[in-house]
Amino acid sequence: MHTAAGSQARLPIRSDMDLVWVRQHVRQAAAQLGFGLVDQTKLVTAASELARNTLVYGGGGTMETEPLVEGTTHGLRLTFSDDGPGIPDLEQALSDGFTSGDGLGMGLGGARRLVHEFGIESAPGSGTTVRVTSWVGRPPRPREES
Amino acid sequence: MPEEAEGTAAVPTREIRDFLRRRREQIAQRWSDEPVFRTVFTLSRDEAVEAGKAVVDALAQVADAARVEDPDAAGFTAVREQLARMGAARSRAGLSTAQVSSELAALRPPVENLLVSDLPEDATAEHVRACVTTLSVLMGTLRVVVMQTALSEGQALIDRQRLQLLEVATPVIKLWDGIVAVPLIGTLDSARSQVVMETLLESVVEQQARYAILDITGVPTVDSLVAQHLMKTVAAARLMGAECIVSGIRPAIAQTMVHLGLDLGTVVTRASLADALGYVLHQLGVGIVTPGTNGAVAR
């Protein structure tokens, strides 16, 4: 695995202004890798949700972007990490409509549906890391039955 | 002991003060050739020299107060604005902060040379060193003052622009009797959505509007927070008796919203502002007739 077009970057998520920068950066990186408009929008929206979670619930953190190549397919991996309180019940956090704040509770579960690969590591007291990956031109993941 | 220490420290600052006052003219002349003066005061050389004199006077006053290390010394007050102008002009010319800083550093050697040649020949090496050190500290403080002023100017500018954005980006347009529209542009964060809601509700009252169209063509990303803001705005408008229509939902946004699981529920949505206007006119019973035909009714 080696890096493709665009370069690896690490962005701080400390304020509302940083969220704007995160969205613009992801949009540019995705466009550069050849993502179509719909996939760009999906990835940017997922990044926006996850970055906001990092800011609001994790108390700030970072986002890392990493372009990927697999055969002839390009992809983009985004890693959001924070040193916040962590998530006690991942199953519950991923379910739609659940929120520990005053949001809609669609962020985490919604972001999972917007990307191809979704991984989350969290435990109370040890922060949260969310890793999402999308590939250019791959059909969307079938929706799981819930 | 403390008095003694203060006594020896005070001698170089007094000496520097006297030196600056004595050589005011020459220092200003030499400075006027330095980029930071020459390129800012372009009207005439005299203008640059005058500006230089003002800075020398300020430095002398700071030395007089024996506060060479203090960027907040009263002496700098008179020239703070001028220094800010110089710093800002150089930044505007495309120089980085480091470059501006080194241009300011270039002001020191001419003064230092003058000082060394000005000291009496029988001065002890220690005395010379003390004087040069004091001057260096003073010039360093001047640099700090300029950079500080430039930075706070920058912050003030950012704050002003943020306020301007809040105001400028939310015009409410009257499209027809009883129909208002808000074209939303850019990032819809909490602060801006608050302003949007306020201006929209005010105009609903003012225009006695029964329909309000929120157009999100200019919003690049609709995530759950943006959707929440939209729904709150719609709910508030509804409480005031106005029905809201959300228009300008592009295909990519529509697909993303579905995947995200966002449901605007009972909110009427349309693809474009024109569609939304057509829908509202129809609701109001207003038809649009094309001349020459027997009358086509708006969708």
TrEMBL record, chain A:
Stretches assigned to the Histidine kinase/HSP90-like ATPase domain: 38-138
Database matches in Pfam families: HATPase_c
Signal peptide range: none
InterPro entries referenced in this protein's UniProt entry, alphabetically: HATPase_C_sf, HATPase_dom
Organism, as annotated: Streptomyces ardesiacus
TM spans (from-to): none
Annotated protein name in UniProt: Anti-sigma regulatory factor
